[in-house]
Amino acid sequence: MKAVGSGVQSQITDCDHDKIHPHRHWQNNQCVWTQVPKNANMMIRKICGKLNMVKTDQPDPRLPERVCVIRNPSTRLISALGEYSKRKKDHRPLRALLEHLCEDATGFDEHLEPQSWYLQEITYTHILKFEQLDTEIYTVPTFAQHRSVVDTVIRPQRLTYSKHHSGDLQDIIEEHQDLVEQCVEKYYALDQDIWQNTDKYQNTE
To answer: Whole-prediction pTM value?
Structure first.
């Protein structure tokens, strides 16, 4: 199995991640989950809190359940630009933001980093697809054992739209297909491969 971080490029923005997110992982004595911006973090943090998992910057790579969420890079890109625009009060049209990103990513924030950049420390036993999170989350024993808790938090409808854009995400992508494809090819090719071939990057031994 390939580690998720195999061949990952360095970060593409100029964010100080240690300052912004000093604790990227939640764990207990059975399970560790790694946060990736725009990949259902708010929902899973609520679950981890209810299960008394703790935040840490020193994840245990020996735990039997090592979990992350991967998302279609195209939909994540659109959602991440919406988050960036809101937080930084950069209200340029989406197309202008995409053009800027394609040219130079350094001025953007942590939401635009490759997903794989966040996943270099651990070889994961469970790489869950964001789009099927409402079912795939139950392949993780820790979450399956607490289904009554998880069911109150995971909302399938929240996996199919962006709160920062009006309209269907897929329609938005198609409208800006040329620039989306350029950005994915330039920055997120490994993310695309992981999303399409999760089995290749998981280690279930």
So the answer is: 0.91
DSSP secondary structure string, 91-120? ---HHHHHHHHHH--TTS-GGGS-GGGGG-
Are 105 and 112 contacting, i.e. CB atoms less than 8 angstroms apart? yes
For the chain, which residues score pLDDT lower than 50? 1
Residue 24: which region, alpha, beta or left (left: phi > 0; alpha: psi -120 to 50)? alpha
Q: How far apart are CA 192 and CA 189, in angstroms?
A: 5
What's the angle, vertex CA 160, arms to CA 162 and CA 132, rounded to 5? 135
Burial tier of 78 (Cβ tally within 10 Å: 0-12, 13-18, 19+) = buried
**Starting at the edge strand that comes first in sequence, how are the strands of the sheet with 65-70 ordered?**
54-56, 25-27, 31-34, 65-70, 126-129
pLDDT for the residue numbered 16: 85
CA distance 172 to 175: 5
- Residue 146: alpha-carbon gap to chain centroid: 23
pLDDT at 170 (0 to 100): 86
| pLDDT given at position 47 | 97
